[in-house]
Design goal:
Rossmann fold, globular, 3 domains, Ferritin, 9-stranded mixed beta sheet, alpha/beta
Length: 477
Amino acid sequence: MKNIGNIIKTLQNIMRKDQGVSGDAQRIEQLGWMITLKILSDKEKELSLLYDNYKSPIPEALQWRNWAENPEGITGDDLRKFLDEKLFPGLKSLQADDSNKLKLIIQEIFEGTNNYMKNGTIIRQVLNELNKIDFNVSEDRHLFGDIYETILKDLQSAGNYGEFYTPRAITEFMTETINPRLGEKVLDPACGTGGFLVSAIKNIQKQDIKGVEDWKTLQASIHGMEFKPLPFMLAVTNLILHDIEVPNIDYTDSLNREYTGIGQKDKVDIILANPPFGASVSDGVESNFPQNFRTTESADLFLVLMVRYLKEKGRAAIVLPDGSLTGDGVKQRIRQHLLESCNLHTIVRLPNSVFQPYASVATNLLFFTKGEPTREIWYWEHRLPSGIKAYSKTKPIQKTEFETLKQWWGDRKENEQAWKVSINTLAENGYNLDIKNPHTPKEERTFSSTELLNLLSDSFRKSDELLARLKKEMGNG
């Protein structure tokens, strides 16, 4: 049995010899477009057997089997020139048509992708290694699914690309808790590499899929949006790998759409998402939103957008940073809108280190249902396992850590990790959702940066008052 893990390592080692490729991010992008074309080629062999009239979206001369498959095929400068002068320009200029959405997806992938490799002989070595995998063999496909996860984790140490990877333990816990079922429309408006969408596919598949018609229904109900080229390409590949023939992933910034243009036909039953946070949105994007919700903080705008996309009784599980739970002005109005439009029934507070090494900001999992206002919110404080001071790349959060929370979920009682807060208390406090665990002993309590600044400000104010009083008394003395 071939070891696919070794094949991927070999591929990366071969690529390191090419002077044109610099760093992990470029290696992953290079590997990404090659794997995309290889997966498409293998899938096409399968589809042409299933459908007599199957027609490839890729012109014949550019199809993988005609330039990449033969180990004795073109190599050296001829191969490099073919990629730079024929393959990439040809795929970037594909004309989309309604009969073949895959053509548009391929064109969009290559619009934002580059060939960094300069040595045609090394490119040939990579192609020959990649051809050892057959994505039509279920064993290879499943093994590659694990390798794919490894590639995604590598993104965490590849600069800004890390933002697109949500730990698998979190995506699976959120998905299983929301429990999407066959026929329900699932949306991730900031889908990154497609982790939540794949998790939803697996959840529906194991419970509901009985035949071909069910599978068609499932394929039509999974929808993602992503506007950065590398994660878009990886998301498409990820879904194809999970048997979605034509992934319904839009290469777009989901915030760059008129809020009022999202009508009933666009609304969905389920939203699962980890929207980007800590970044400003593109210039002018906030003008798509109603005046009282306009902000340049991406996480806050995504929250407004997701409430809009949900149908009545639609369910959502999303990741949000602490910064979106507090603050006044527009942030407060957005939170009030969420609480009045939806039943925000549960907030799971995660330790700061869940998204390390690239982000140490404290995050939360929010679970809500649209169509009825919030009356109370249950909070659950997720604690680090015994003996671990912080999560890391080598010690990530594990799914088993959510077992206690799952047991508590259906029969809620206050305990040292769980507490509830009424809507009246929240309203009196400016709809601040950043509520600390009241059961935490005072000496163990941690303060948010806002609380620390308030404490410091209070301390300075008291010092100034004391100084003024002393001056006054000395002047009178």
